[in-house]
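Risk register update: the risk of archive-format incompatibility is retired. Evidence:
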Amino acid sequence: MRTRAVFVTALMSLVAASSGAEAAEGHLADAVNRQVLRVCATPSNLPYSNEKGEGFENKIAEVFAKDLKRPLEYTWFPQGLGFVRKTLTEKRCDLIMGTVQADEYTLNTNHYYRTTYALVTKPGSGLEDVTSILDPKLKGKKVGIQAGSPAADYVAKAGLMPTAKSFLFIVDTRYQNPMQDMINDVRSGEIDVGVLWGPHAGFYAKQGGEPLNVAPVLEVKREGLPRLEYRITMGVRANETAWKHEINNLIAKHQGEIDKILLDYGVPLIDEDNKLITEPRYPKGTN
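Archived output:
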């Protein structure tokens, strides 16, 4: 939509499709389809989403669709560069279920969970109580780490890199799964501990045999090192503040259901004080 004529034609069509909905800014019609909940998602990307609807983002989208009384429709695109541009920006869908920060094309909703990296070990390893990558107990241990991840800086700071095993960080998850590979190496004893992003750690530690131990990293922020915990939001187009407020309302209304879904998938949830959340946060008077 790079010419004015094409833009005007598309805009007129979208106005009709959305029953004349107005955007919060500029009094222009937004591009949100008010008849269908259109979600931008990545195929084969568990625990987040897949084309069978088996990820936790799929389950949360189903909660929203039921509340809105709209059918749920996906636009699938591989994870990585171009995802936002080829889905949300091109108006092929209206909502990204999980993102950390906005860019020039997206607007963040309120966050709906906060999580951190985690250490994955075998039961009986003697490392089950370790919650810091800088813990002296890890000295001499073989650590698995995704190169280029924020946690890799802590592994380097701890002096664990000489014996660490490196795994890829950004991949097309349809063809490669370094997270599952790392968990397999923990199970086989190839590595002593795996350092993984919390949602990956909690999910994959339950796959392929006896559940592994997952210890969320509650690391004190160190000067010169990145933070390891992040707020996860949803993403909408940059000018669609009315739609953002609709999604914020859905998040607040269904926070307890969202928490339950995330906890069922093993996602380590932490509050703003870095305390673990172990029970869904339902509004008072509900269950």
